[in-house]
Amino acid sequence: MEKQNSKTNTDTITRRKTILSGIQPSGKLTIGHLSGALDNWVKLQDEYNCFYMIADLHAITVRQVPALLRSQTLETVAIYLACGIDPKKSTLFVQSHVAEHSQLAWVLNCFTGMGECSKMTQFKDKSKTHKENINVGLFSYPTLMAADILLYQADLVPVGEDQKQHLELSRNLAQRFNHYYSNTFKIPEPYIPKIGARIMSLQEPTKKMSKSDENERNIIFIDDTREQIINKVKRSVTDSGSEIKMAADKPGISNLMTLYNIATGKNFTEIESEFSGKGYGDFKLAVGEAVADYIQPIREKFIEYRNDKKMLNDILKEGASNAHFVASRTLSKVYKKIGLYSLDK
Fold it and tell me: 56, 143, 152, 136: which is closest to 106 by C-alpha?
């Protein structure tokens, strides 16, 4: 990989607005990640100064199998690349490789109220599902997320509906710090994609598709084979009646129409017209084949990249160096403003 020098980085940062986002390496990525995040990330990198991380520190709020976490970290990098993230255009790095994330998170912990973290919906939900491990990291997860964002002076943060609350805390903390210590952080704004951001479970179409679902028949993974995808779609839950239309009372068919829209680019009116008078069986087969065609080239690239560990490591080293260059400048300002003594001065 060609090394980007510091001057190039600085010039790019000056010209373009900055975007930061990341995904936890706590499981295989799904078609929901592709349509709701990665496809948009690829488009954004031509217009913005993009920092895309693998959020491994966030993943350990839930106990992980160490060897599996390491493997899934590299798999996530390979999927980023297979989907079109270009390390020559964007900074691609692992969160734990840039120490400033943890360092700024501690400072922000000291500016965050107990009530602000305790009211977070994600903390409440995970506390119910992981009662054996309700840890301090899970509680203060939002301040680490704020550190991720504020370190890079992000203008925009691609977030789903489930993360808007965390972004709001990030904005509050930035404003609070700026109030007490002068203008230090940019106030980040949400970037919420409108199309394909929410794909539902194949077996429970009123529930969002999740990589952590224990039933893999509910999920289309980016590394699924053609046969696996077609079979999962064939067995998906549909609704009463036989009409193929987008409707609130037809969550199963509406979900399959969303998948078909993502795979083919056809809008919902076109899809309804194409399958007018046809049954669910024909529709499921068409959806399965279209999604398989859509996923196959990405899967092939993923396998190629995943098998080249040296290339992945080189990309991550370069990304960590570039991320550190930016993050260290922000952290240095923060430390100076709050009164921490520096040996360099």
Answer: 143
Judge whether residue 340 has pLDDT over 70: yes
Distance CA 60, CA 259 (A): 31
pLDDT digits (tens, 9 = 90+) for 249-284: 899 999 999 999 999 999 999 999 999 989 999 999
Instruction: Count the helices and strands in the chain (H runs, E runs).
Output: 15, 5
Residue identified by tokens 């570039």 is 322
Q: Is 313's pLDDT higher than 80?
A: yes
3-state secondary structure of 110: coil
Give the distance, in angstroms, between the CA of residue 36 and the centroid of all CA atoms in the same chain. Answer: 8
Residues of the chain with CATH 3.40.50.620: 6-196+309-338
Architecture of the structural domain at 6-196+309-338: 3-Layer(aba) Sandwich (3.40)
In the chain, the amino acid numbered 159 is V
Kindly report, as residue ranges, where domains of CATH 1.10.240.10 are found in the chain: 216-302
DSSP state of 51: E
d(CA 117, CA 25): 23
Nearest CA among 295, 340, 243 for reference residue 28: 295
Angle at 153 between CA 147 and CA 154, to 5 degrees: 90
Give the CA distances from residue 105 to residues 137, 146, 244, 288, in Å, rounded to whole numbers and listed in that order: 11, 7, 49, 44
Q: Which residues are catalytic?
A: 126, 208, 211
Token pair 């020559």 in the structure block, residue? 88
Amino acid at 88: K
* Lateral strand order in the sheet of 91-94: 91-94, 49-54, 18-23, 156-158, 189-191
CATH class (in words) of the domain with range 216-302: mainly alpha
